[in-house]
Amino acid sequence: MASGYPLSYNLQDATQWDPSWSDSNVVNVQILADPDNLHPTNGSSQIRDEVLMYLHGALIKTDLQNGNMSPGICESMPTQSNNSNTLTFQIKKGITWDNGFQVNASDVCFTIKASKCQLTNNVSNKFFFDNVEDVIIDSLNNLKFTILFKNASEYNLPMWCDYAILQESKYDFNNSLRAVSFKQLNDKSFIQKKNTQLLKWANQFNSDDMCANPSFVSGMGSYKLERWERGQFISIIKKQNHWSNTSVDDALKAFPDKIIFRISQDPAVQKASFLSQLYDASGAFPTRLLLELQQNKLFNKNYHSKFVDTYGYTYIALNMQPDGLKHPMILNDLNVRKALAYSSQIDNMIKVVNKGINKRVAGPVAPLKKECNNNLLLIPFDIAKANELLNKSGWTDSNKDGIREKIINNKSTPLVLELAYLNTIPDWKEMAIVIAEGMKQAGIKINPVAYDYPTWLEKLTTHDFDLAMGSWNTSSFPEDYSQLWSTASYAGNGSNYSGFGNAASDSLIYCIAKETDVAKKINLEKKMQQLIYDEQPYIFMYGLVRRCVLHKRFSNARFYAERPGIIYSPLKLNSLHQQSSVNN
Questions:
Q1: Average pLDDT, the chain
Q2: CB 256 within 8 Å of CB 25
Q3: What is the mean pLDDT of residues 477-493?
């Protein structure tokens, strides 16, 4: 992390127990929306990732305190070959599944095969696993294994961080994937759909049961899914016989009996709920609401709260490759994309909606990261410049209705674009309106439309949009340009929503991944950021600030710059509540 930004904030334990505080060992967390699913490999929403970290275990995990990686279910960090083409892991003894079986290398091998399989619906991370060549299990030790990669890459290690390892006997009880070799999975000519047994496995693995049914949503984590009522809450309950319960190391243990993620989107309801102490925690407060509550003595008596800078940023994605039918050939023109950026009232939007809490960003890497290209200039709100660019591309308002038009494919086409945004984030409607008002001054009509997350995500991954407002919650780990900016990610309905890229940018992405010299790598990254900036696939808006809130009835608490910002499993009821009970 860049100098001057703390990695974490220790929260001082309360020194007095208030009689109004609940002594329930249940953490009630306010969230904004349902996850897309709770499938261990097939999904992409932030709240999904947060819930899964309590249900599953990984080879390595994020060290939130120090902003790096640390061993998860392994004895130590893996041994790497000099060219980073291999990683050798040793799983700890005593790490068991719910049936008491030791987690072993075969489970890891299955997880990798499941993630590589063409039939698995995991488009957001499949490209990571495309680089896996093979897994070699030690013939004398089934807790030791080596992962071989096709190409050296600095992402070969971080890709395992917090990635769920699955129990083979639960997710593949017929051993269907054991019959498929890595050689076959790496062979593009291997038609997996013709393998009847593999197709049957994939249909089951991708099914709704694996996404939400408590009987199937299962891992090695300290908690299990108890209940999911869509639109209301997700409840996870601590396992009574989990292997960590007998550990002498408190860092491995989970303390709350239950964690309930409760959906609340209305700021008025959120305000009333926290003032009445119905919720214990949140990382998703509207900025203005938290600023208001921080002036309330009752709120401050009961809660810790802080605005925490993160590695994420918000953006408006522009569809650079419209289909010419449903989406006219408008945003394929660089002048139009740049005109949209110059007519975006980002500074005013931050002032009005976020009360100046957030800071603008100019490019695709958060300012907290040392590789951020600080030479990229913020694009100002400049209607004259926007008009100049649009005039240059032949957009005029000939009928004087306030909307520019142009003849495209022998048809008069108005400069009208839809701006898709999430209905789960209260501030985003107002943000979309401010953006539309600015662009209107340049003769661009913007129609803001709210969507639920699954619909919004489907529109972006299938490139069925004009403009789309979103955010990326990245981490302190090396920036992965392939996920957001490679042409393969666009063609494969991955996270390159805009359609940015060509052979030159793909080559640069490849060079960044292979470069081991830090200084050279940063120079390559800055060049990549400049390419993205010049092509304007996004209108970059502002860096994300997490709005962290936690009840003071819990101790052993911290706020983190790393996502998800608050970890609930280490929380302990403040011991003062026992003394209070005795006194009463």
A1: 93
A2: yes
A3: 90
**Three-class SS state of 72:** coil
9-31+233-309+550-583 folds as D-Maltodextrin-Binding Protein; domain 2 (3.40.190)
**Mapped to the 3 state alphabet, what secondary structure does 454-504 carry?**
HHHHHHHHCCCCCEEEEEECCCCCCCCHHHHHCHHHHHCCCCCCCCCCCHH
| pLDDT for the residue 474 | 82
- In tens, the pLDDT along 96-116 reads 999 999 999 999 999 999 999
How far apart CA 129 and CA 462 sit, in angstroms, is 22
Provide the CATH topology of domain 312-544: Dipeptide-binding Protein; domain 3 (3.10.105)
Class of domain 60-205: alpha beta
258 DSSP β-pair partners: 26, 237
**259-313: per-residue pLDDT in tens?**
999 999 999 999 999 999 999 999 988 888 999 999 999 999 999 999 998 888 9
Q: Within a 10 A sphere around the Cβ of 584, how many other Cβ atoms?
A: 6
Count CB atoms within 10 A of the CB of residue 545: 18
Q: Give the pLDDT band (50/70/90) at residue 480.
A: confident
